[in-house]
């Protein structure tokens, strides 16, 4: 199983379990998160790129993988994603380098899936 399918399968399974509890606050949060990334004054692609930068600076590997997947689906190029990596490292500092390594690994897996 690839790292992409492993991540997506686990995420889907656990989101289903979380939402099955019918907790209103969690459902509203999940809905807010989904709606925030829809086209508005900024398009989806821009919002996903911003989400990716924020996730890298906050050092959340799950969020990085999620946003990389969305960026890939939206047609973000390898050059564009590497510019995002550069900005994230500039803003977040050298602590982001290990997350950039894992992000590059995941992006490469997306490209070969």
TrEMBL record:
PANTHER family linked to this entry: ALKYL HYDROPEROXIDE REDUCTASE AHPD (PTHR33930), BLR3452 PROTEIN (PTHR33930:SF2)
Q: What is this protein called?
A: Alkylhydroperoxidase like protein, AhpD family
Report a single Gene Ontology molecular function.
peroxiredoxin activity
Cite the Carboxymuconolactone decarboxylase-like domain residue spans from the record: 25-104
Signal peptide span per the entry?
none
Record organism: Haliscomenobacter hydrossis (strain ATCC 27775 / DSM 1100 / LMG 10767 / O)
Q: Which InterPro entries match?
A: AhpD-like, AhpD_core, CMD-like
């Amino acid at each position: 199983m690839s790292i992409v399918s492993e991540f997506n399968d686990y995420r889907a399974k656990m989101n289903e379990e979380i939402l099955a509890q019918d907790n209103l606050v969690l459902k509203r949060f999940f809905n807010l998160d989904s709606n925030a990334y829809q086209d508005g004054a900024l398009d989806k692609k821009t919002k996903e790129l911003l989400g990716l930068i924020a996730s890298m600076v906050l050092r959340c590997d799950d969020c990085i993988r999620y946003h990389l997947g969305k960026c890939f689906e939206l047609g973000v190029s390898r050059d564009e994603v590497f510019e995002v990596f550069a900005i994230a490292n500039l803003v977040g500092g050298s602590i982001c380098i290990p997350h950039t390594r894992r992000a590059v690994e995941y992006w490469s897996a997306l490209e070969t899936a």
